[in-house]
Each structure stands twice: as C-alpha cells, then as structure tokens.
Write a structure and sequence with these properties.
Number of helices: 11
Helix content: 40-55%
Radius of gyration: 25 Å
Shape: elongated
Strand order of the largest sheet: 2-1-3-4-5-11
Structural class: alpha/beta
Length: 325
C-alpha cells in the first residue's frame, strides 16, 4: 500500500513537471527551437548597394537558422513607403526587424513603435533620431569622409577648389560623410576652398545633371567628392560628359563596376568603399543573437576600405561582394 502511494506521488510530480514545461513553452515560444522570422527593411530596393546588403542578410539567415523577408521602398527618398514596410512587418508578427532608415527624423517614431511592441530592432547603415533600438551596425561615415578629404587634398597639393555632390537631406549616413569631408578640409587644408555642396534628388541622373551644372558654373574646379553610390556614379558620369575625367580629381563613396573601371583607367582617384555584405550579414546576426537571449553590442562598426589604382586588383580578389562584383 505504501509502495503504491510512493508511485502515485512520483506520477503526480512528473505530471506537474510536464505540465509546467508545456505552459512555459506556450508562454515563451522562443524557448523552443523555432525558426525566427526577421524582417529586413532597406532604404531602397532599386539600388545595387542594397542588393549586396540583401546577400549578406540572407547568408546570415542561413547560418542562424532564420528566414528573412525583404520589403522596402523602391527609391531611397520614399519615406512613407518605408514607414509602411515597418507597419507591415509588425502586422505580420516578425520576430525582429532590421532596418536601414532612409530619413533620420521621419523614421524615429516608427522605430520607437517597434520597441513598443517588444520586438528586437537592429538599425543598419544610417543612424536615426531614436534611442529605443537594440544595436546599430554600420560604417564610421564621418571617418570615411575625412579620409576622402585627405586623399583629394594630397592629389591637388593642398591648394585648389572642390565641389561636394551630396545625397538627399536628412540622410544621416551621407550627411556624416559630408561633415567629415568638410570639417577636415576647413581644419587641415586652408588652401582649399569648397565652392559648393549640392544636394541631389537621390538618383544617378539627377546627380549627373547637377554635377554638369556645377562644372559649367565653376570651370575652375580642381576636384569633386560624392557621398554615396547614386551621387558617385552620377557625378562621375557628369565629369565624363564634360570631358573632364582624368583632369578633375574625383573621390567616390561606395563602389560600382563603373567606378572600379574608372579607378583602373586613372579617371577616379579613389573609392571609399563600405562593406554592404558585412552590414547585412551582421545586422541579421545581431537580430538572431538578441532573439536567442544573448547580449549584443549597442554599436557594431564595420570598417570601410580605400580602393586606389595601386591596390585595385588585390581588393577585387579579397572583397568582390563588398565592391559589388
């Protein structure tokens, strides 16, 4: 009789343990070995640079046993479409959001809303005027702009006149590159004058046309710096249109096959190249780690690279994806 009582007690305890585990799993589904759904929201889907980010994100998803969705505006100036993509991700109950905000101010509230839903949020590429996100993964843009200034200054002997081809207003990453370039010129190279710093509409064609207009307005221009992929490709095409390639010293920010060819031919002095593959990869990896309950870095800087004619072939072999090849 006593033995039966012991057996009954053991069975009751075992049942209680199993029941507790079942309840825990229902209340904490992430405790199970589930496949996390991570929404990746780029600044724009039509830009080659973001396609490389996508490849990095997908590689990380494979390694971390996650799936990623890819949804965002076609052009980087469409703030409303990106805000809608955030809302769609929350409606579809994404486990985490990885986002490259295309406007420093306009995306602040949507990103705060992600935190309000207790959904991990990783900001990539460009900072945002919000505090409630889990990690930022991106290039040190100010430092990259400063490096561009030093390269151009050395090429024109510390004296001359330069143009800056900007991107769109309130793009924090490109504004930081502009600031790094401008501050360094003003502080370290008093013999160099910045003739004009022109915003564009965010497209290659608009950057090309604005570069042409500026070169016609300022025929004394010695050098040009452009702050990102569309502005760099557009500025280079504008310089070519005016038949000034090789005469005007040009530094681009972000890589493209057209710009790499320009480096090879001596028409582009240098490219300050980000590593978009690594930015996408680490963005998704940070999200997966956060979902697993691991401690992640508040800021994870991704180094930029300088590509010149001297190291071009080596860089193409070492970093083909980062260079958009």
């Amino acid at each position: 009789m006593r033995t039966n009582h012991i057996y009954a007690t053991v069975l009751l305890l075992a049942s209680a343990v199993l029941f507790s585990l079942g309840v825990y799993k229902k209340l904490h589904p992430r405790a199970e070995n589930k496949v996390f759904q991570i929404a990746v929201i780029p600044k724009g889907t039509a830009n080659m640079w973001w396609e490389v980010v996508r490849k990095g994100a997908e590689r990380a998803a494979q390694e971390e046993n996650c799936t990623v969705s890819w949804n965002g505006p076609e052009v980087e100036t469409d703030r409303e479409k990106q805000i809608q993509a955030v809302e769609d991700a929350l409606i579809k109950r994404a486990d985490a959001v990885v986002i490259g905000p295309n406007d420093y101010k306009a995306l602040a509230r949507p990103i705060e809303n992600i935190a309000g839903k207790s959904v991990p949020c990783i900001v990539i590429d460009s900072p945002v005027a919000a505090e409630k996100y889990d990690s930022f993964v991106g290039t040190d843009n100010y430092k990259g702009g400063a490096e561009a200034a030093r390269l151009l200054a050395a090429a024109i002997g510390g004296h001359g006149q330069v143009l800056v081809i900007r991107f769109v207003q309130n793009s924090a990453s490109t504004d930081a590159r502009d600031a790094g370039f401008t501050d360094t010129i003003k502080k370290d190279y008093p013999g160099i004058e910045i003739l004009s710093a022109q915003y564009t509409l965010g497209t290659v064609e608009d950057a090309r046309q604005k570069t042409i207009d500026l070169l016609e307005r300022f025929p004394q221009t010695d050098a040009v710096f452009a702050v990102n992929h569309p502005s760099s490709v557009g500025a280079f095409k504008g310089i070519e249109t005016q038949k000034l390639d090789g005469k005007i010293r040009f530094v681009a920010f972000d890589s493209d096959p057209i710009l790499l060819d320009g480096v090879a031919r001596g028409k582009v002095l240098a490219i300050i190249a980000q590593n978009p593959f690594e930015i996408g990869y680490q963005g998704v990896r940070q999200a997966a780690r956060k979902l697993r309950g691991e401690t992640i870095e508040r800021s994870l800087p991704i180094p930029s690279m300088t590509v010149t004619r001297d190291n071009l072939e080596e860089m193409k072999k070492l970093y083909p994806q980062a260079l958009g090849l």
